[in-house]
Amino acid sequence: MNEIPTKAPQGHIEVRNFSLSYESIEGPVEAVTDTQIHVKPGEFVSIVGPSGCGKSTLLNAVAGFLKPTTGVVTVDGERVNGPSAERGMVFQQYSLFPWKTVRENVEFGLKMRGMARSQRERAARTLLGLAGLEAFEKHYPEKLSGGMKQRVGIVRALATGPKVLLLDEPFGALDAQTRVIMQQILTNMWQRLKISVLFVTHDIDEAIFLSDRVYCMTARPGSIKAEIPIPLERPRQQSMMMSSEFLALRRGLMSLIREESLKAMGGEISDMGLQGLNIELHGHSLADVI
Amino acid sequence: MSASAIAETTSVPATTPPVAPPSFSTLALRWYRLNRDGLRAIAIGIVSLAAFLLVWHLLTTYRVVFFVRFTNVPSPLAVYASFTKAIHDPKFLMHIVLSCRRIFIGFSLAAIVGVPLGLIMGRFKLAHEIIFPVAEVLRPIPAIAWVPMAIMLWPTNEQSIVYITFLGSFFPILVNTLHGMSLVDPVLVRAAQCLGARERSIFREVYFPASLPHIFTGLTVGMGVAWVSLIAAEMISGQYGIGYFTWEAYSLVQYADIALGMIAIGVLGLGSSMLIRGAGRLVMPWRLK
Question: At what angle are helices B208-237 and B255-283 packed, to 10 degrees?
C-alpha cells in the first residue's frame, strides 16, 4: 500500500458569496446565485437538486473550469484559479482516453507529474488491484462495461493523491445494481484515503446513503435551499436503506426537492394537475421521474 | 468490508478453466466459421474480376460497336503480352519508379505540412482565422489547373510535378485534420486538465490521438488525389512517369500499352492506399475490433 499516495487529512473546500451568470442576447442569465457551501477535510458532501439547477455548474467552478461571477472558491485557503491535479474529478460520461489502455489511463496523472515509468506502472497496478481491475490493465476502455469504466475513472482521479474528489453524477448512466456496487466501492475508497468528497447527483437515495451532509439546491437560478446532516452510522449497509431513520431523511429531502422540481417545470405541471401527479409518482422521487 | 473484497465479488471471471488443446481439424473448422464472411467476399471478388476480364475479352475479340467502339481497344491477352514485355524493359520500370518517387515526395511534404497546420489551426483560433480564408479560396482549384502556374513557379519540370502532387494531397489532409480537431471531446480535455496536464501535454496526449482517425482519413483521401494530380501533370508536362507512358502509348499507337499504363496506375494507387491503411492500424491499436 506504500505506493498509494496518502495525504494528511486536508482538503477544506469553501465556496463563499458565490454566483455565476453567463451572457446571452437578453442580458446576463444567472445560473447560480448567492451560494455558500463548505466541505470539511475528509467529509463526504453531496449536492442534490432538480435538473438544471446549477449543481454541475457549482461543481465545475470548484474544479476550476468555470470562474465565479462573484464570490470565491478556496481549497485549504488557496483560491481556485483553474483546474489542477489537487482536485480530482470524475465525470458522468466516464471520459477515459480511448487511445490509452486501462493502466495508461490510470497512469496519466502520474505521468503528467513526471514520475518514472516503472514507478507509475507499479502505482497504477496497485490502484487497479484495489478496484478489482488488475485483469483488465491492458484492455482499451471500449471493451469495458460501464461500471468498470467508472471504476477506472475513479481510480484515475485518485492516482495523483488529490486533496479533494469531485464527482459529477458519476453513476447516472449505470443500471441500478451496478450503481449500488459502485456506491460501496466509492465509500470504501473514501474511507481508506480520508479524502474530501463533493458529490453531485439527482438521486436522493444515493446522496443519503453516501454522505455526511447533503445540500439541497433550489430551481434555477440555483442557491442552497437546505443543508441536511446525515447522522447514519458507518459503515453503512444496503439494508440500512429500509430503516426508519433513512426513510425519514428520504421523505424530508424528497419534499424539498419536489417543491423545487415543480417550480423548475413551471406551467406544464399546473396544467396536468398536482393531484394526478402525486398518484402517478407512487412514492418515487420526482427527480427520478424527470 | 474492504474494497478489494467487494471488487473480487464484482469482477467478472476473466479466464476459463484450462481444457485440452483442440485438434487441428476442430481449429480449422472454427477458423472457417469465424471467417466465413470474409472468405465469401474473397470468393465473390475473384469471380467478379474473372467476369470482368471475360466481358472485356468478348467485347474486344468481337470488336463490338454499340455507341462505344471497341474496334481499337486491346484485348486482355494483348495487354498481358505487353505486360510480360514491359517488366523486362528497364524504361517501363523507370517510369514507375519515377512516378512513385514523385508521389512519395509530394505526399510526404503534404502530410508534413498539412497535419501540423491542421492541428495548430484547430487549436488556435487566430491561426484558423488567418489561414482558413486563403485555404478555402485555393482549395477548389483542381491541381490540373495549377499546371501552367507550377511550370512558371518552379525552375525544373520535376519540381513542378512534385508541387502539383503536393497540392492535390495537401487540402484533403488539412481539411480532415481540422475536422478531427473540431470533434475532440471537450470532456477529455477537461479530464486531462484536472489530472495536471498543461497545454503541451494536452496537445500531445489528447488532441493529437483524438484526431488521428480523421488524420488518417485525410491521408487516404489525399493519397488518392495525389495520384490523380500526378497523372494529370505527367500527361501534360512530363517526361517520364507512368502518366507520360500512358499518353505516349496513345501518340505512338501502342494501344495495348495504354491499358497497361492504366492498370499500372490502378494497382499503384491501390497499393499506396493499402499502405496507409496498414500504417493507420499500426498507429491506432485501440481502433482494432
Answer: 170
Which of these, B162, B173, B108, lies nearest to B135 by C-alpha position?
B173
H or E element: which one contains A33?
Answer: strand A29-39
Give the strand pairing for A29-39 and A78-79.
unpaired
Per-residue pLDDT tens for A59-89?
A: 999 999 999 999 999 999 999 999 999 999 9
Between positions 110 and 149 of A, the ones with CB within 8 A of B are 112-113, 129-133, 135-136, 140, 142, 145, 147
pLDDT for B71-117, tens place per residue? 889 999 999 999 999 999 999 999 999 999 999 999 999 999 999 99
Sheet with A87-90: list strands edge to edge: A87-90, A164-168, A196-200, A44-48, A213-217, A224-229
Q: What is the ipTM of this complex?
A: 0.85
Question: Distance between CA atoms of A100 and B285, rounded to whole angstroms?
Answer: 10
CA distance A270 to A285: 18
C-alpha distances in Å from residue B75, one per residue of A105, B93, B151, B242:
59, 23, 37, 20
Cβ-based contacts of B1 with chain A (< 8 Å): 184, 188, 235
What amino acid is encoded at B208 in this protein? F
The pairing of strands B65-66 and A224-229 is unpaired
Write down the pTM of the prediction. Answer: 0.83
Q: Which CATH class is domain B74-287?
A: mainly alpha
- Residue whose cell numbers read 424527470: A290
DSSP B96-163: HHHHHHHHHHHHHHHHHHHHHHHHHHHH-HHHHHHHHHHHHHHTTS-GGGGHHHHHHHSSSHHHHHHH
**Residue B155: cis peptide before it, omega within 30 degrees of 0:** no
- Looking at beta carbons, which pairs linking B71-74 to residues 24 or more positions away fall under 8 Å? B72/B255, B73/B255, B73/B259, B74/B255, B74/B256, B74/B258, B74/B259
CA–CA gap between residue A14 and residue B82 (Å, rounded): 83
Helices (H) and strands (E) in chain A, counts: 10, 10
Q: State the nearest Cα–Cα gap between A134 and chain B, in angstroms.
A: 10
d(CA A164, CA A184): 18
Interface test with A, best of B4, B194, B211, B282 (most A CBs within 10 A): B194
Residue A8 CA to residue A41 CA, distance in Å, equals 9
